[in-house]
Specification:
By secondary structure, this protein is of the alpha+beta class. 17% of the residues lie in helices and 32% in strands. Strand 14 and strand 15 form a beta hairpin. The longest helix has 11 residues, at 132-142. The radius of gyration is 22 Å and the shape is elongated. The two termini are 38 Å apart.
Length: 353
């Protein structure tokens, strides 16, 4: 492979802001795997956000890149999996599997798509120094007539339309808006763009914690919600505390410590238990050797957290601490409190329906 921008290259990133800033180019924020695709003839490399190759996990996309992208190019975008008209991150994560036979099966059962939103090189020319607006024009010209499973991400400079997308596209599984300064060159591994994500709050049960890697303080709180059958389900974690607060939480939660055998999640170490319930410590091919041990607590404390959106029955991202809720009963922390997002067909995002 001999391209003006060679792999690995880290993607340009975005910083969170509360509102959509004016005077920029706006796109939907895709909920998938960030990927930079390098193509030089038949040679294709798909690089992940951290620079590691994803190529072997998505053979159907390698074929699509050869069929749809220019013969020599570097394209930034997102790998997504759609199910029943919306993005499905759980099915996407299942695609990362060590067995080649399983990879081949999943490529047929849950095929992925590639959503292109930036052009970093074409032919012998690097486009990294070019302004965002010019790279967008070059992307649209280079991918004219592209066919599924490769798509061009819709973009607009109309902030009112971007606000409309922010509201409507969530129903198709997208999780916000990305705003890009029009004169911005491509800056790998720099948070030079802006992301605006949905934020909601929920009252959740604190049912355990994981110790911090640095010592005897809280690393993350394990959060639970009761389902319709009255079973406490593990829905995610709350983290990112200052070190002083981690030590305070350790002291506050000490009286609630119990033997894991007496906890609603006592069966978390049994693989079969994870098939019917969400429990902490579930095996994860993303975690590697990460310590997933946890301290069981009596599920008696309730806290309010902020979150962006749900993925099925769990929080898609790490929740943000807001406050203790001593006025709330744990049994009142159910899925019923969560806002339901109005459905929106993903095909309409691409103008296909």
């Amino acid at each position: 492979m001999d391209l003006p921008v060679m792999p690995p290259i880290l993607p340009m990133l975005a910083k969170s802001v509360a509102r959509i800033p004016p005077g920029m180019s706006y796109e939907a924020k895709w909920d998938g795997f960030r990927a930079i695709v390098h193509r030089d003839g038949d040679e294709v490399v798909i690089g992940s956000r951290n620079g590691k190759p994803l190529t072997r996990y998505f053979p159907e996309l390698v074929d699509a890149v050869r069929a749809e992208l220019p013969e020599r190019c570097v394209v930034d975008g997102e790998i997504v999996v759609a199910h029943e008209g919306r993005l499905d991150f759980d099915r996407l994560t299942e695609r990362i599997h060590p067995a080649a036979s399983r990879v081949a099966t999943l490529a047929e059962r849950t095929p992925a798509s590639f959503v292109a939103f930036d052009l970093l090189a074409k032919g012998d020319a690097s486009l990294l120094p070019m302004a965002q607006s010019l790279r967008r024009e070059a992307l649209e010209a280079a991918l004219t007539g592209v066919r599924a499973p490769v798509h061009i991400a819709p973009a607009t400079t109309d902030i009112a339309l971007a606000g409309d997308w922010f509201d409507r596209y969530e129903g198709a599984g997208l999780d916000g808006i990305v705003a890009k300064p029009l004169d911005l060159p491509y800056r790998p591994d720099v948070r030079a763009m802006y992301k605006i994500k949905h934020e909601r709050t929920a009252d959740v049960v604190v049912a355990g914690y994981r110790p911090h890697k640095s010592g005897p303080v809280v690393g993350s709180l394990l959060l639970g919600l009761y389902d319709g059958s009255g079973v406490l389900q593990h829905v995610g974690v709350c983290a990112a505390f200052p070190m002083k607060r981690r030590a305070e939480l350790m002291e506050e939660l000490e009286p609630l410590r119990i033997d894991p055998a007496d906890h609603p999640w006592a069966a978390w170490g049994e693989a079969s238990a994870h098939e019917s319930a969400r429990l902490p410590g579930a095996p994860s091919r993303w975690s590697g050797k990460k310590d997933l041990s946890w301290v069981a607590l009596r599920p008696e404390r309730v806290c309010e957290v902020a979150y962006d959106h749900m993925e099925g029955t769990r929080l898609r991202h790490t929740a943000q601490w807001r406050r203790w809720r001593p006025d709330k009963e744990p049994r009142d922390c159910t899925y019923a409190q969560l806002a339901e997002v109005v459905g929106y067909d993903l095909a309409q995002v691409f103008g296909e329906a």
